[in-house]
Amino acid sequence: MKKLIILIAFMLLVIIPVKGELAVNIGGFYANPFTIENFSLNTFYTDPNDIISFNETNRSFFDNNAGFGFNAGIAFFFNYKMGIGVNASFMKTTFDINNSFNWNWEWWDGDRGNIDAKNWTNTGTVSCIPVSMNIIYRAVSTDKMKVNIFAGPTIFLTSIELDGNGGYADGPLLDGGFYYIDWYDLPLEVSTSESVIGGNGGIEIEYMFSESMNLYISATYYFAGELNLNWAVKPGQYTGEFGSLVATISNPDLLPGYTIPVKLSTFTLGFGIKVYL
Predict the structure, then answer these.
(1) Which of 4, 84, 91, 195 is the most buried (most CB within 10 A)?
(2) Cα 103 to the chain's mean position, in Å?
(3) Side-chain-facing half-sphere of 188: CA atoms under 13 Å
C-alpha cells in the first residue's frame, strides 16, 4: 500500500499546477463491517434407475466483526472552494462461519432415512483497499475551521479468504447384491482477489492547530456492487461418513450454485492529521 500511495502522490505532483494549495493526510477510522448474506443450497437427485432419491441441503451463516482501518491521501485545491484528491484506505472484516448439512433419502420401495444435521464452525476474512479519486468542495473556510464535502469513483481492491465445510451424498453402489449409499464431509474454501468498481462520498471537518497542520474528522460512505462467489471443494480422496464409499474428488465446482454473496458497501468514521505544503 505504501508504494501505491507514493505513486499516486508523485502523479499528482506532476500533473497539478504549480500554484494552489497541496495537502497530505494520514489517519485511521472505525468501519462498519462488510457483510456476507446467509445462503442455502437445496438439491434433489434421483438416480437414472429410480432406485433411490436424495434431498440435500447445505447452509452457510456468517457473523461479521467490525474493526479499525487506516488511510492516507493527497489533495490539491485550485482555490478556496474547489479541489481534487486521491485517497487510499485499508479495511478488514473477520467472519465466524457456520455451515450445516441435512440429507434424507427414499428408496424405490418407499423406505426412508436421514442423518442428524451436521454442523461445522470456521473463520474467514474480507480485506479491501478502496482507492478513490474525489472532487472536493469547501462549504466552509475560516481561519480555524474548514468543512469539505467530497465524492467520486472508487476501485475496491479486495482479497477474500474463507474456510468452510459442506456435505455431498453419493450412491447407490451395487456390491454383493446390496445397494450402498454414503455422504462426504468436504472441506470448502474461497480464496480470490477481485477488483470492484463503486464510489464514495462524505464530509470532513478540519480544525487548525498550527500554521500548516490541521486535525480532521470525517464520515464516509463507500458503495459497491455485490460479489457472488462460489464455495470451492478442496480436491482429494474422501471416505464416506458411513464408511461405505470412497471417492477421489478433483472437481472444485462439485457444489455448483453454493453461492457466497459478499457486500462491500460500508460506512466509516475517520480521524487524523492533515498537513498543508
Answers:
(1) 91
(2) 30
(3) 32
Q: Is 45 helix (H, G, I), strand (E, B) or coil?
A: strand
What is the Cα–Cα distance from 188 to 230, expressed in whole angstroms?
Answer: 10
Q: Hey, is 19 helix, strand or coil?
A: coil
Q: CA-to-CA distance for 3 and 1, rounded, in angstroms?
A: 5
Residue of 33, 92, 91, 101 lying closest to 61 (CA atoms): 101
Residue with grid cell 447407490, as numbered in its chain? 172
Q: According to the model, what pLDDT value does residue 16 have? A: 47
Length of the chain: 277
Looking at residues 199-206, what average pLDDT do you find?
Answer: 97
The whole-chain average pLDDT of the chain stands at 92
Residue 184 CB neighbours (<10 A): 20
Here the cell at position 23 is: 495537502
**H-state helical runs in the chain:** 2-15
> What are the angstrom distances between the C-alpha of 276 and each of 20, 77, 135, 156?
11, 10, 18, 27
Per-residue pLDDT of 206-251, as tens digits, reads 999 888 899 999 999 999 988 999 999 999 999 999 999 999 999 9
Mean pLDDT within 63-76: 93
Residue 126 to residue 162: CA distance in whole angstroms:
8
Q: Calculate mean pLDDT across residues 91-106.
A: 97
Whether residue 187 has a cis bond before it, omega within 30° of 0: no
pLDDT over 90, % of the chain: 85
Burial level of 186, CB count in 10 A (0-12/13-18/19+)? Answer: buried
Residue pair 109/53 in contact (Cβ under 8 Å)? The answer is no
pTM for the model: 0.86
* Residue 172: cis peptide before it, omega within 30 degrees of 0: yes
